[in-house]
Amino acid sequence: MTAAAETTTIHGDRVSLLRVLGPAHVWALGVGIVLVGEFTGWNFSADKGGTLAALIVCWVVGLLYTSVAMIDSEVTSTVAAAGGQYAQAKHIVGPLMAFNVALFLVFAYTMLEVSDAILLGDTIVAKAGVDGLTHNSFIAATIVVLAWLNYRGVLMTLNVNFVITAIAYVSIIILFFSVSPWTQGAVLKLNELVTPGNALPYGWIGVIAAFQFGIWYYLGIEGTTQAAEEVRSPARSLPYGTMAGMITLLIAAAMTWYVCASLMPWEYLGITPYPLWDAGKLTGSPLLENLLFVATLLAAIASANGCINDAARAWFSLGRDRYLPSWFSAVHPKYRTPYRSILFLLPIALAFAFIADLNQAITFSILSGVLQYTFMSINIMMFRKKWPLGTIRRGYTHPFHPLPAIVLFCLCVVTFFAIFLGFGSQLIAMIAFYFLISVWFHFYRYKFVRRGDQFSMPWPKPQGY
Amino acid sequence: MSRYTPPEQSKTGQIFDIVVVVVAIFVALWLPLKLGLAGAAKSIDALDAKTWEALGQNPTMASIWEKLGYTPETAHDVIQNRFHYVIDWPTLVVMAVVLIGYFVFLFRASDREYRDVINEKFDDK
Fold it and tell me: How far is A25 from chain B (nearest CA, A)?
């Protein structure tokens, strides 16, 4: 492929992002971000509601994310621009919504990156077992090195992600088949660990509460859309990569729950920062223990790597459209990456990695994620209403509309209630932030935005306007 | 419709806007942590008898706890540290109002801006 062919030209003569990615990169970006959720985070749902609650939310939240993937595939394969859901909001709902959606993305991914770095630091410290060793230097090194990798180029970044994500995923499969999952009693003891008396220790309110961390099984799969402007064939690669990623994650989540629930009591499972590594230890096999230790680190690195990629692209898009100072919209002349956005978000990630703990960082990320999913459920309804089927060319049309949107909306409401049960004050504080920053944008910042240029797709006028 | 030409923003203005956004991010995310508002209410339901039986652990569970390096004494605070879910209705109502109000403002204000975008985009043609 020639250099000219690799360069997208939709922004005229400006230096722009390179179209170099295929479906495997899309899969690596989505699964790479999310797979860390199997290595930590999902198990806090067992703390909230018991082991059975963790399984229930694994499947129900899986349904939520299947709806997200279906909806996202349709909209993104049609609105193929960097920023993903941000670009969707800009074309379908309006600039203020787009501004908020970009902030949801930046917060969700930056806080997920923070969680990854904390997990990596804590895991290394636990493995070293040295008195006085803290996780700070490991956290700083992780965030800085990955930011540098992202600065250097998207293709190299996602090639690295593909390899380490694949290794981490294979480790879950190896663990699963090493513990003879078809027999109980030898290694796995599900019947003795999950009993009628402790399966749902808090009853159904615990199941609802577990939704908060159930989101962590899959949070970030929608990040595949951030690569829309850098994939060679968005209409094919994005739906294919996203749906394949979702199937991959559903299988990994089910295997992870089954092995972990069969190896440790729910009270411990609910608080450990590294359930799969602990599962490896409890098998009694040093090989599995070390494999899962390495896989935990790799999953954290892959996730943080993808998060930096996605958060920077959302921030870059805000600068390019002048929703934020246009200084952020610079593309590196040599590496063709949104380098200023990458560098700007670096100290923010570092700061929160040092002031928040794992549980809180995960919740920050989940909050922004659920706000975004709520938007997506309404966005698809507006998309189908403004451009009914047949009026524009869609790369993919998701089936059963509007059922996935309704399911997604209802599950978001349940998740908001779940977050209220644990982090109600935090939720109100974050909404207050989004509201105030929206007022700032609508009444002040929007004056710097070019109006008609916001709509860049070659579509007819939306119906009702 | 006449084409809207936005003003050019000075460097000082750009820096000021960046500072506003950064401060807002830290206030929203850091302040609740600093004030101790983040985190669910868990408390330890203490037991007098610290045995695996009293802690509700069967022999299989007890053996796993021991494999993980716990004794009934050290596992007590982990096992008995429980959530106490209480629905605070006034706070729930406040949260629902804030959330709904936010989305209503978002969609209404977005729609006003969107009409400008559509008018300028399609009236130009």
Answer: 31
